[in-house]
Structures are given as C-alpha cells and as structure tokens.
Amino acid sequence: MKNFAKRLLVAVALFSATMHSFAHEKKSHGSQESHESHQAHGDKKGVGLVEKEGRGEKQLQALNVHWFYNWGASTDIKTPIKFVPMIFSLRTLDKSVHSDEVLGFNEPDNSKQSDISVQQALRNWPELTKKSRLIGGPAMAGNPVSGSWLPEFMKGAPKVDFVTVHWYKGADAKKFIKDIQAVCSAYGKPVWVTEFAPSTAGNGRKDPDKFTQSEVNQFIQDAVSWMNQEPCVQAFAWHDAKEGTSALFDKNGSLTETGKTYANAK
Question: Which of 66, 100, 128, 237 is least enclosed by beta carbons within 10 angstroms?
C-alpha cells in the first residue's frame, strides 16, 4: 500500500510538471503568433498610383512604400511591392483579383465616382466578397460616420473586414487623428486610410499653394507617425494631388518636396 501511494505521488508530480511545461510552451507560442500578426501589419505605408500617367516601379521605390493600388483590379507594373486590387464599381464586378485583400466600391456616395445606392451595394456585395479573403468596405466621399451612406450600409451586416477612409480636410494632423479615431470607434474594425492629403486633385489645381510646404511636411510627419503607432490603422496611402503642395511627383515623375517627406516619414 505504501509503495502504491509513493508511486501515485511520483506520477502526480510528473503529470504536474508536464502540464506546466505545456502551458509555458503554449503561452510562448501565442506570444509569437501575436508578434507575427503585428509584424504583418507593420509595413503600413502605401500609395494610390495612376499607372496611365506613366507612374511605375521607379516611383514606388522612391516613395519607400510597402503596398500600392491603382483603383483597378490588376496592375501592369512589375515590382516586388504588394499590389492591392479594387473593385471600383458595379461595372468592374466581373473582374478577377489575386490578393489576400480587395478594396470595395470607390465613393459610391459620389455621382462622379462609382455612384451606387446602398441597396444596390448590398445586393451585389456577396459577389464581391467571393473574390478575396479580406474585404475592404466602400470608401466614402462624404463623412463615413455622420453621413448616411456607410452607416446604412453597415446596418445590412455585410462582410467587411476593414473600413476604408478618404480624408481631405487640410493640414491639421490633430483633426485627422480625431476623425480616424471616430471611425475606429464607430465600427470597431481595422481602418485603411486609402486616400489622404491636405488637398484633393481638384483643389490642388484651383489653389495649389493653399497650404505651405512647411505645413504639409509637418502634417505628413505627425499623421504618419501616429498611424504607424495606432493599432486600429492597418494601412494608409497618400493621394497625389498632381499639382501644388499635396503633389508627390513633378511633371518628370521625380519626387517633390512633399514626396520626399512622405518617403522619409516614419
């Protein structure tokens, strides 16, 4: 009986030690997975590139970006830099994509962009979600929180893995941060800022020097630094205004002062 009790105590001790070791390994493995997941979203900086204007690999490398898109479903640029496709509108819903992510309809609340009603978008959304593993929601021309289009769309419970945002409200980094935080809070999903700059292309043509170079440089540095540290923001892409202080490239395709600031921003 005494020998049996002794053997039982030894068995219990061995079992306890084994379980402790297993728990430690599982905890360490979980931490590694969390770290790897964080690293997957560590290279956030990207750009929207208009390929038909001759922009390509040279510009992508000069900007130090880790991903790009072109408002289309495919690219002709040969580059190791990641391309993320977009299904721009209902007219491009038949396009095939080859990526882990796809960006949804571009500004459906804008008659000059994809111009889609909420009901049309919801009816056709299941077809879009078949195209990739991770789905970016439609990007608004208007306010994504206080406007009517996106809140109504999200009430329909579509598959949206991350919310996409466009932002053109000047060179005020504090306002930018506040607005992006509002989107994070409103939807509780990761955010991709797929267009942002002090000026749109239209405003860049009308008033190219509305914001000084110093103001734009400071905005870029503050906004990029915050987004790189903010877990809610998974990716961001500057929008080239083509003219003025929000332009990334000059007429020869070389980086402007703004382009250089964005390239160096961390």
Answer: 100
